[in-house]
């Protein structure tokens, strides 16, 4: 009997977040039942080399037709459908972040079941009709949090809730490498508050900086580490803000890091201060929980799901005063007390958000499509 061939589509592996999520699933599918393939637009990004070495067949061609003019789009989409037929998948699973609907149309022309994962809280504005058409053409839709169902698909029977998962073994806390503290200009006895994030404005990192500034004078033994690629305009604004506050010795930027676990190992508290627009299913928060950290997050889509039973760890988005109160409460605790609370979060992620749970949910989902 032929295995179920799943073709994963993603524009590129240049920003590795979605690419890692895709590969985490594809590599762990039951090999007796499934045959994963990957299709992307180009070979950009360091992570593409990892994908190539995975052993999964990788196809590279432009599978996204321009949506206008309409006559050209239909013709180009039909040509793309012929290429998809050559790969001959049973299912196409799109990891494209955008509202583009042309690959769904190409899958229709090819007679292939097409689905996508809704990974963000974008919907309105100029892209609203594209999202509606993309959703209409999908056979089923994976959503990553409950708010997506309420806001985008309240009456749909197509949706399946599958939150992100992480490898708890990979991120489980281990002995810290003290070279990291040297690199971060942090003394061995200083305690670490950390934020690991993609440095984009929606992450609200300036709110965390403001909150830390309000209480910093009371906590001379604490520092804040900001882990992420700060070379963009937003990162430069954050650095400027820290300098203007005179906190460059207490708020330390790591720059882009592939091995975030080495930084998490040194921390006691993790904060994700995302703005009101919300998240899909933030993996950075799950990685911190898997590392046994005490986590605090803004009360927004995605984070609210993950911390559903920990309301005291949520704060109103953009409210630096409320966040400062939360920080003050936890930073006053001893290491042992924070370790005990962190263990609760490890159990939460291990039982509900492990990569094993995510993969099993996808396998069940794929079977329902064929």
From TrEMBL:
Record field: transmembrane: none
SUPFAM superfamilies in UniProt: UDP-Glycosyltransferase/glycogen phosphorylase
Origin organism lineage: Bacteria, Pseudomonadati, Bacteroidota, Flavobacteriia, Flavobacteriales
Gene3D superfamilies associated with the record: Glycogen Phosphorylase B
One Pfam assignment: Glycos_transf_1
Ranges of residues in domain Glycosyl transferase family: 179-334
Source species, domain of life: Bacteria
Domain Glycosyltransferase subfamily 4-like N-terminal: start-end pairs: 17-170
Name of the protein described by the UniProt record: Glycosyltransferase
Family annotation (InterPro entries): Glyco_trans_1, Glyco_trans_4-like_N
């Amino acid at each position: 009997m032929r295995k179920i061939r799943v073709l994963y589509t993603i524009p590129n592996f240049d920003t590795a977040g979605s690419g890692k999520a895709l590969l985490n699933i594809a590599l762990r599918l039951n090999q007796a039942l499934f045959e994963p393939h990957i299709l992307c637009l180009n070979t950009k990004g360091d992570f593409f080399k990892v994908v190539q070495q995975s052993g999964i067949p990788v196809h590279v061609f432009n599978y996204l037709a321009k949506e206008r003019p309409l006559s050209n789009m239909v013709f180009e989409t039909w040509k793309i459908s012929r290429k998809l037929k050559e790969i001959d998948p049973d299912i196409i699973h799109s990891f494209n972040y955008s509202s583009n609907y042309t690959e769904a149309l190409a899958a229709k022309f090819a007679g292939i079941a097409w689905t996508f994962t809704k990974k963000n809280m974008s919907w309105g504005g100029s892209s609203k009709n594209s999202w509606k058409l993309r959703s209409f053409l999908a056979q089923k839709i994976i959503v990553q949090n409950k708010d997506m169902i309420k806001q985008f698909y309240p009456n749909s029977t197509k949706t399946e809730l599958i939150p992100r998962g992480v490898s708890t073994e990979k991120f489980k806390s281990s002995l810290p490498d003290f070279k990291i503290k040297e690199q971060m200009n942090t003394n061995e006895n200083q305690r670490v508050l950390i934020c690991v994030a993609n440095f984009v404005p929606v992450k609200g990192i300036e709110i965390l900086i403001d909150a830390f500034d309000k209480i910093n004078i009371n906590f001379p033994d604490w520092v804040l580490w900001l882990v992420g690629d700060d070379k963009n305009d937003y990162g430069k604004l954050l650095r400027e803000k820290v300098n203007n506050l005179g906190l460059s010795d207490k708020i330390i930027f790591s720059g882009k890091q592939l091995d975030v676990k080495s930084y998490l190992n040194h921390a006691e508290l993790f904060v994700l201060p995302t703005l009101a627009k919300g998240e899909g299913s933030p993996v950075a928060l799950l990685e911190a929980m898997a590392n046994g950290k005490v986590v605090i997050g803004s009360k927004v889509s995605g984070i609210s799901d993950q911390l559903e039973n920990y309301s005291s760890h949520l704060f109103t988005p953009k409210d630096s005063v409320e966040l400062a109160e939360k920080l003050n409460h936890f930073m006053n605790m001893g290491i042992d007390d924070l370790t005990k609370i962190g263990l609760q979060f490890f159990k939460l992620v291990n039982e509900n958000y492990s990569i094993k749970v995510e993969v099993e949910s996808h396998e069940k989902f794929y079977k329902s499509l064929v």
